[in-house]
Amino acid sequence: MGHLEEQDLAMLEPLFFKGYLHENNQHIWEMILPKRLRRMYDILNKRTEYVSVLTEAVDDGHNQAAILRSAEAFGVQNVHIVTGKHAFDPSRSISKSADSWLTLKKHRSIEGAIHELKRDGYQIIASNLSHDAVPVQEIDVSKPTVLMFGNEQSGISAKALDLSDQDFMIPMDGFMQSFNVSVAAALSLYEVTRRAKEQAGDQYFLDEERKKELYHQWMMKTLNPRVRKMVETGKMK
Fold it and tell me: Is 127 annotated as a binding residue?
């Protein structure tokens, strides 16, 4: 394949064997370093849509970015967004381009977002300190789960809480009874992904079709913007 060295061919062998790299997309992958191609493949094998994130009116760009960065770090592919008073504009210095590797889905309303996610088989678990809230360690992860986080000041709206399946909280031993929303997201994602991965088995990870779809997207995002445009317009084949 192309001008690959023997050691590179060995490193990329699983990608050729499983159909991630082939002659039809050679004009793309031959412009990407073999180590990069392999790293994207290895990361995809750890990605999940079993756990997702839903944010409602998280307005601060630093918080938006930090949530994206945590989702990416813990292998969570999908982040669903309902904007509040401010546009969704995550700080680039905080996100470190994490959003480049995620699937961001923007919804017009929180009701629409929750109904769509429930139709897709998810339970909606809301970060909300209520009498009925379960500790994050006790969230039922036997089914696909969406963790929902709300506005920095007002939290999750009443209508969203009414539609959610369960409230959860992070137990604390100090005087403070709440975390910054991005910190809460990071702690919750760590705990929930860890337990879900153990309990859900293979169901936790992406299927081959979805992985190949994302792999192509990631390859395209890796390209220089000018080159990417040429590929997209068919000027480079």
Answer: yes
Q: Are 18 and 44 in contact (CB under 8 A)?
A: no
**Of 203, 207, 204, 182, whose CA–CA distance to 18 is shortest?**
207
Which residues of the chain are in CATH 3.40.1280.10 domains? 51-204
97 sits in the region (left: phi over 0; alpha: psi -120 to 50; else beta) called left
Helix segments in the chain, DSSP class H: 6-17, 26-29, 34-44, 61-73, 92-95, 110-119, 158-163, 181-200, 208-222, 225-232
Question: Which fold is adopted by the domain 51-204?
Answer: Alpha/beta knot (3.40.1280)
**Does 170 carry a binding-site annotation?**
yes
Ranges under pLDDT 70 in the chain: 1-3, 237
Tens of pLDDT, residue by residue over 107-166, are 999 999 999 999 999 999 999 999 999 999 999 999 999 999 999 999 999 999 999 999
Give a three-class secondary structure readout of 108-175: CCHHHHHHHHHHCCCEEEEECCCCCCEEHHHCCCCCCEEEEECECCCECCHHHHHHCCEEEECCCCCC
Q: Is the pTM of this model over 0.90?
A: yes
Give the position of tokens 């963790």.
147
Query: From CA 151, how far away is CA 107, in angstroms rounded?
Result: 16
CB neighbour list of residue 205: distance below 8 Å, 6 or more residues apart: 45, 46, 47, 48, 50
